Amino acid sequence: MSLIDRWRAWRDRKLASPAFQRWAADFPLTRFEAARRARGLFDITAGFVYSQILYALVELDLFDRLADRPLTAAELAPHMGMSVTAADRLLRAAVAIDLLERRGTDAAGAARYGLGKLGIAMPGNPGIAAMVRHHRMLYHDLDDPLALFRGELTETELGRYWSYAGSADPAADGEERVAEYSTLMSASSGFVAEDTLDAYSLGEHRCLMDVGGGEGRFLLQAARRWPDLQLMLFDLPAVVERARETFDAAGVGDRVQVVGGNVKSDPLPKGADIISLVRVILDHNDDGAMTILRAVRAALPVGGTLMITEPMSEVPGVEPVGDAYFGLYLLAMGSGRTRPLREHRAMLREAGFDQIRLVRTRRPLQTRLLIAKVA
């Protein structure tokens, strides 16, 4: 054991000692840090409770209801379908985790509740509410986390939901199945598209093809920003039929070429000078991801550009998102994983790309952007 390892072992024993922890909680110079760590550990323990408070408020549509004006528990209770006492308990719990806040009292002295500093983001972002509802499946799969990690679950809720990811024939999903997950992806991708297109301008490109683009949310935002940009969408046949309707309704159908196929078995159409993979690579295991990257490489001309935008692993400051949340989500889904930047670079080089660079984005916790050129 090295000197540094021996020092760390001594430090860990010292910090784990109940006597030291009592001393640190009382000593003025360490009191704040001891309290912060205790609170952090408790928040992890209580995390499921906090998430269920959020879920309850989403299901009750309370964020939209409180967006216009604050209301009391008595005013909200009939809508919530519970007694005033129970409603007040839920509202107080939401205040405690900054989803709501107290906004004074009414004439009778009852507390009025409005949006808190975290809840204020909810009314303008329906995609967040959609994901909160969707997480019921993830919580079910995590009921026995050890069984999930050990591979003892024969089937998971998320595996059934995202059936295309692990299926040998993803095109076999029926129209209802495709509609369900396509709508969720569309609802949850708004600010991912916004942050990506704010970070990288498509003004110098002629034609953008979005591979795995679902109902076309990313392409629609690109179309609005760059009116001269030609657009292509490649996804499963049932998905692109839904996208075609979306483009026509938005008045950009004449600018978009829609192509249906399976990216892991069908060649991509040519003609684009930039191809985007928005939250696509992380859904696939290494073999599948390399197949997709090689297909993109074959479809691009020399000097063509690849854009990858997705959450990644080992991102400084937001490691819990990439390594804890998405790590377990994708494990439950049964396909894919988040990757650190160095692995993305290695895979891109192996697939025939160079000039790989990371572009700064507004919210790296869920949107990291890589740009690469065909070698």
Description:
The protein has 375 residues and is of the alpha/beta class. It has helices at residues 3-16, 18-26, 31-45, 47-59, 62-65, 73-80, 84-96, 126-141, 145-149, 157-161, 163-166, 175-188, 190-199, 217-225, 237-250, 286-299, 319-333, 341-351; strands at residues 71-72, 100-105, 111-115, 207-211, 230-235, 256-260, 274-278, 305-310, 353-359, 368-374. The chain has a seven-stranded mixed sheet, with helices on both faces. A three-stranded antiparallel sheet has the order 1-3-2. Helix 14 (217-225) links the parallel strand 4 (207-211) and strand 5 (230-235). The radius of gyration is 24 Å and the shape is globular. The model has no long low-confidence stretch (mean pLDDT 89).
SS-derived structural category: alpha/beta
Helix count, DSSP H or I runs of 4 or more residues: 18
Q: How much is the average pLDDT?
A: 89
- What kind of sheet is the major sheet? 7 strands, mixed
Low-confidence stretches: none
What shape does the CA trace take? Answer: globular
Kindly provide the radius of gyration, computed on alpha-carbon positions and rounded to a whole number of angstroms: 24 Å
Task: Give the oligomer, counting copies of the same chain as homo and different chains as hetero.
Answer: single chain
User: What's the N-to-C terminus distance?
Assistant: 45 Å
SSE ordering: HHHHHEHHEEHHHHHHEHEHEEHEHHEE
Walk across the major sheet and give the strand order: 6-5-4-7-8-10-9
Measured as a percent range, the helix fraction is: 40-55%
Q: Classify the beta-strand content into a percent band.
A: 5-15%
Number of strands: 10
